Amino acid sequence: MESAQLLIILATAIASATPLVFACIGETITERAGVINLSAEGTVMLCAMVGFVAAKTADNVWLGFVAAAIVGALIALVVAYGAITLKQSQIAIGFVLALLCSDLSAYLGNPYVRIPGPTVPPRFPIPILQDIPLIGPLFFREGDILVYAGYVLIAVTWFYFYRTRGGLTLRAIGEQPAAAFARGHNVIALRYIYTLIGGALMGIAGAAFSLDFKAGWSYRHTAGYGWIALAIVIFGGWNPLRAALGAYLFGMLQSLASVAQSAIPDVPTQVFTVAPFVLMILVLVLTSGDWLDRLLSYLPVNARRSLSRALRTAPPAALGRPFEQD
Amino acid sequence: MKVELRHIHKHFGNVHANDDVSLTIEAGTIHGLLGENGAGKSTLVKILSGFITRDSGEIALDGRPAHIQSPADALRYGIGMLHQDPLDFPPLTAIENFMAGSLATPALLNARAAERGFRALCSQFNFDLDPHARVSDLTVGERQQLEIVRLLANGAGTLILDEPTTGISASQKTLLFDALRRLAREGKSIIFVSHKLEDVEELCDCVTVMRRGRVVGELDLRPYRSNGHAGHWPADKRFEVTTRIVEMMFGKELAMPTKPATHQDEVILSLDGFVLRSDRLEMRIEHLAVQRGEVIGIAGLEGSGQQLFLMTCAGLEHPAAGSIHVGGRDLTHKPYNDFLRAGVCYLPADRLRDGLISGLTIQEHVALRMSGKGIFIDRAAAAQEAERAIATFNIRGRPDTAVERLSGGNQQRTQLALMPAPLNVLLMEHPTRGLDIESTLWVWQQLIARCNQGTAILFASSDLDEIVQYSDRVIVFSGGRISPPIAATELTADSLGQMIGGRF
Amino acid sequence: MDSTAAPQTMTAPARIAGLPPAFYRVGAFVISLILVALIILISGASPVTVIGSMVSGAFGNADQIGRVIATLSPLLLCAAGLVYTFNAGLYNLGVEGQITFGAIAATWVLRLLYPEGATASLLPPPLAIALAVVVGGVGGVLWGLLAGALHVYGRISEIFAGLGLNFAATGIAIYLIFGPWKRPGVASLSGTQPFDESLWLGTFGKTEATPVALALGLIALIVTIVVMRNTYFGLRLRAVGRNLRAAYVLGVPARRQLLSAFFICGLFAGIAGALQVVGVFHRLIPNISSNLGFLGLLVVMLVNFDPLWILPVAFFFSALNVGSLQLPLSLGLESSLSGVIQGLLVLFALLGRGLAQKYGRKPEG
Fold it and tell me: Beta strand B189-194 with B206-211: parallel, antiparallel or unpaired?
């Protein structure tokens, strides 16, 4: 294969992973605040439908994104209310919503299946950036504004997480809500806010599918992507940068798989969608048990510490647990 | 900052946790707050730091009334609290912890500026903290230092420390005490909540003792010291102070031993070179042999390792070294199931967390104990057994009452009723906590009947009367050490008090 | 403290006595029905017409009733299995994968005994089918225990382990369908080459319902009811699910109990998967589970883990699924309305439970 050809494939792969980036960052934010929004699969799908329908009805593609974000936040609100206020199982509520919203998208979206609709205007080339060798063709060739928005989102989220007081607090409430409360933070309100923001981003992810990268709407249009996003968040160790990287890697894996199809015709591309889940389990095995510590204990202290930091991406300590104020 | 608490009341359900508590802490002093677990001291400091809202009463700071309803309020008034288990964020770095929740932290983090402030404060107190170390890699003592530095950066005028000397090294303790004395000299008020008499005597200017939700005594230690603040203690004075504090905590007179002799010659439980280790404590028992029918009382301020000791004897934890034999069988490092089969039974203090299962009824608990005899639950037998247990143990409930609906006392009776028979070793925490006098007497009758059948009992209690009345021998846990066993008949209020205070 | 208990003299502001808990549950149920009606109205149809169409779609003729039974049978198996894991305090979202792997195992055995085109073998067809069902159960057990081991020994959330293994099982199925087990000629998502009709499970008349599957489903359910109500095993399971630590202190072998729950759930789900192969599809298809595992999760959540109520609810859910298939034909609507109704019922049951706990009048205690 020519390297130029490979470059084009990879560039397409990076671009097409953009919706997944939105979903992964959204879920990362939610989980960092200590809440699991297991409804991702349903949220992305329903919002893809809502985004498409809204954009089509209003004949404005950006209104589609707004509608999708609102619906995503509303679904997250149900999760937050059930999990934070009513202290019911986050898993149960999120899971039911995942199924419910998928079916709802199929039912209500029925009249909109495979009809033309508005799409995001195609190209916004960025003059200087696209001419940088390798980087330009790889990251800026597609010229899609959402791809850029994805880059910006990653950078902003990372900056917010690690360089602002708000981000520090966000990480704090997911680790030790009691300690955050002792420092004067309103844990409950903050968890609501971040769950809603995460939901809105997942909604945008859905609209990014139906209005751009997989333009249009059909039955179960985004099937599987929500679950994949959940897996990638774990694979990414609850770090926005690593999660985004995971999403791009997944995109490339998909593209390469379809290329490899010709080489190994016996293996269908669908098999490769399994990869994130296998990787997720491997990462969990690596980080959950105590055998890693035992293995590392043979190393000198310094090496142990830095290796442990690199490998051990523990979930937020309070993930999935309701916060009891007294 | 001068802190005044006036007529504080707080109820938890039926428990009057703070009953008209008034307390004044002068600016520039270190004030010790002593008392057993459940005496209400932690409720009191949590009210002051905004974690718990009081039912009634007033708080005044420097003479002005303060409205404290949340930790955020308390922080604004300059009240900072160090919790026993440091309330920090283990996966974050020290400097991130320092910045998190600091009022001075700008919206955009400025790590360099924060680090400068952090290092300056650390060097003031000779704390050697790496700002970039993860908190999970720090020792408890270092995490404490980090919290102190953080609270001071927030402009705390009053520091509350809850059991700060548990689990820290001697040199860290020296550093901590130096820092606290220095802060007091600067005019800050410090509330030092502790179990440890030694530490309180060494550090504090005044001591307040609480018992059962009330203030039962106050003592100004300064007049006893040769030269005020941090001076050294003349030995006789120190003895006098300990005696007075112990009196306030436990009362003047001890009950008389009343237990009939039940022990038999056969040794049922023996520990040799037994070492207990947790992340906070390391304790050693060279040799302890408990005879059948014997009752060993475990005295000591709560949290001195009694629970770890009992759980290790029960097989729920493993000793760090040494051996444990039950009835001549070596059970060292054997699974918990082997301990159960050897006739060892453990009744935990936190009944609904460790002992009983919420949502299951009394009868279902009885059936659970019968589990293993066949496949199908023998409902008739379980019902009969439950009825019998309810009648003999006078439990206020029906066989189909879920255990979480029972009152605390009735839960304890249920636990006792569930004890298997025959039993070789019974390990208990606070066997009669929450029971009235009559029930207490009755429970001990049952337990002594067990002793007559050859069961050896080891029990921890914070009620010294109970310890002296019902034990054959007593061991005392204090400050990471375990005393040799002493016959209950040889104990006096004084000698026991001094041992609990760490002198044996 | 107990016999001398003073009357409650709280100085804290007394909470206004809540309404009875049942009010919140019924209220939530009513809201879910209203939402269903609203959603139908949004899609431009009349709720009455839609419900009429669904009823006739589910019970209009023998074929349709047969289809309801055919859906009900594996659903009962899955729901019964999930009773064990739920009562042990586990969210076994991996049940889908356990069905799939059971189906793969069953297909493997049948292909081994009857390679392409073969009509005679060592084992006569009835025994081959029986063996396939047993091996399917074993496959489900393997997949269940894998999730269980990851959870018990690897301390991995059973939720993510299960979800991951679902996709892994589907991946294996797709690989087999397109690879080693592909149809002669062209491989496609429509599945492997169908088995010879002699290897199909017998049905009630010409319907899709098979008596064997229904019997197995009912047996699984009855066994489960008996186990949960009458055996020490069921009691230990509930003890572990409600308080793992206290159960352990009381002498319940907690790990073994958790693994048994995964074992049994895997077994039932695997059998369900095998029945999908021999009774419904007669081949391996990528979505062999037909989402029955997830539907089973909904059923068991709705009945709050009590197996007694599984049969009516599972029957209702099966009827919804089958009845909704009529909608595209008669009204031009999408059949996923059944999922919407099921999801809303369960979601609001959960919320109603939470509201009742939070705001409902506390029982005297």
Answer: unpaired
Residue A195 touches chain C, beta carbons under 8 Å: no
Non-local (6+) Cβ contacts of C74 within 8 A are: C99, C213, C217, C272, C273, C275, C276, C292
**pTM, to two decimals:** 0.91
- Examine residue A316 and state whether it is found in any structural domain, yes or no: no
Q: Tell me the angle at which helices B111-124 and B140-153 cross, rounded to the nearest 10 degrees.
A: 110
Q: Do C232 and B14 touch (CB under 8 A)?
A: no
Cα–Cα distance for residue pair C111/C203, rounded to 1 Å:
22
For B91, the closest of A165, A175, A182 (CB atoms) is: A175
Is A243 inside a domain boundary? yes
C231/B375 Cβ within 8 A: yes
- Please judge whether B71 and A166 are an interchain contact, meaning their C-beta atoms are less than 8 angstroms apart: no
Burial of C312 (0-12, 13-18, 19+ CB in 10 A): exposed
Pick from C38, C82, C95, C156 the residue to mutate for testing the A interface (most A CBs within 10 Å): C156
Q: How far does A294 lie from chain B, in Å, by closest CA?
A: 16
Query: If you count residue pairs, one on A and one on B, with CB atoms under 8 Å apart, how many are there?
Result: 67
Q: Please give, rounded to a whole number of angstroms, the shortest distance from the CA of C159 to a CA of chain A.
A: 8
Query: Nearest-CA neighbor of B98 among B86, B1, B51?
Result: B86
* Residues spanned by the domain of A271: 3-311
Predicted ipTM > 0.95: no
- Structural domain range at position C146: 73-307
Q: Note whether B113 contacts A: Cβ–Cβ < 8 A.
A: no
Per-residue model confidence as pLDDT tens for chain B (504 residues): 899 999 999 988 777 889 999 999 999 999 999 887 678 888 999 999 998 899 999 999 999 999 999 998 999 999 999 988 888 998 899 999 999 877 778 888 888 899 999 999 999 999 999 999 989 888 888 999 999 999 999 889 999 998 888 778 888 889 999 999 999 999 999 999 987 788 888 899 999 999 888 999 999 988 887 665 555 677 778 778 888 888 887 776 777 777 888 888 899 999 999 999 887 778 999 999 999 999 999 998 777 889 999 999 999 999 999 999 999 899 999 999 999 999 999 999 888 888 999 999 999 999 998 887 789 998 999 999 999 999 988 888 899 999 988 887 788 889 988 988 889 999 999 888 777 777 788 889 889 999 999 999 999 988 888 898 999 999 999 878 899 999 988 888 778 877 887 777
Q: Identify whether A25 is part of a domain.
A: yes
Tokens of A172: 């704090």
CATH number of the CATH domain containing A63:
1.10.3470
Ordered domains of chain B (ranges, CATH): 3-88+156-250 (3.40.50.300), 256-343+421-504 (3.40.50.300), 357-419 (no CATH)
Handedness of CA C68, C69, C71, C76 (dihedral sign): positive
Q: How many CB atoms lie within 10 A of CB C198?
A: 13
Instruction: Answer whether residue A322 is part of any domain.
Output: no
How many domains in chain C?
A: 1
Residue C226: closest C-alpha in chain B: B376
Strand B321-326 to strand B267-277: parallel, antiparallel, or no bridges (unpaired)? antiparallel
Separation of alpha carbons B458 and C74, rounded Å: 54
C-alpha span between B179 and B175 (Å, rounded): 6
Q: How many CA atoms lie within 13 A of B137 on its CB side?
A: 16
Measured CA to CA, the distance from residue B386 to residue B369 in angstroms comes to: 11
| pLDDT score at B18 | 92
**Closest Cα partner for C305 from B318, A92, B406?**
A92
Which long-range contacts (C-beta less than 8 Å, at least 24 apart) are formed by A305-312? A305/B137, A309/B134, A311/A286, A311/A287, A312/A287
Chain A residues interacting with chain B (CB cutoff of 8 angstroms): 162-166, 168-169, 171-172, 175-176, 178-185, 305, 309, 314, 317, 326
